[in-house]
Amino acid sequence: MKAESRNCLKDCRMSFLVIDIGNTRLKWGLYDTASSGARLMAHGAVVLEDIDRLWESDWKSLPTPHAMLGCVVAGEVIKRRVEEQLSEWGVKPRWLVSGAQAGGVKNGYEHPQRLGSDRWAAIIGARQRAISSNPSSPPPVLAVMVGTAVTVDAVDEQGHFLGGLIMPGFGLMYRALESGTAGLKVPTGEVRDFPTNTSDALMSGGTDAIAGAIERSFKRLTQRTGQQPLLIMSGGAVSRLSHVDELPASVVENLIFEGLLTLAETAQITG
Fold first, then answer.
1. pTM, entire model
2. Does the pLDDT value for residue 242 go beyond 90?
3. Is residue 206 part of a domain?
4. Residue 59 and residue 156 in one domain
């Protein structure tokens, strides 16, 4: 990134666009400045099939952002389609690439650049929340994203990303059962302690599988650090875990956006 662009991302006081392109949807947010704690002016989401209508349906009536930063896991073809929509504004696209260190986090992944940029942004957003909760002695933090897939990522009290889990999300799990078994359908039931019908059993089983993995990671991070971590959860399907009392979580609506804003503010962008 050129120095003048770094200064623009760090210092501009005009609107700033963040984009998160996931496996099934694109989420976007327009903020009043490129900084953590910025005010959200507008936001939206579209399924990937509707990306080519973003300008006409969502962005045309908005103020032109001064700059943008996004993360993408959906591949190059989708990214190019989004860039075509951004070109209507004349905004230069900038996409996050995971690196060895940024936003107060040291990346402990075996190959740091292979860490998904959405996970990296969420981890940085979670670390910033840990710092804000106790600036003099930030606690460890577990960052959980619940979407098409579920990721559970651990950061210790010194800001070292220790590693994390990836598992199927609710939809993938239920569709796998539906396609791989006879007579089981995507459930419409409820989560119960001891289900007495198939739909409730499927719903409860999926919830317990994901919640159990989070609980185990929470326990491991507690044992590793000797402290109780913050547990921060976000993502489009996070509401499905809201009733799980064993998870002392703070639910954050836009954790990835928070990480992108932190990186923009500090101009720590590697791609």
1. 0.90
2. no
3. yes
4. no
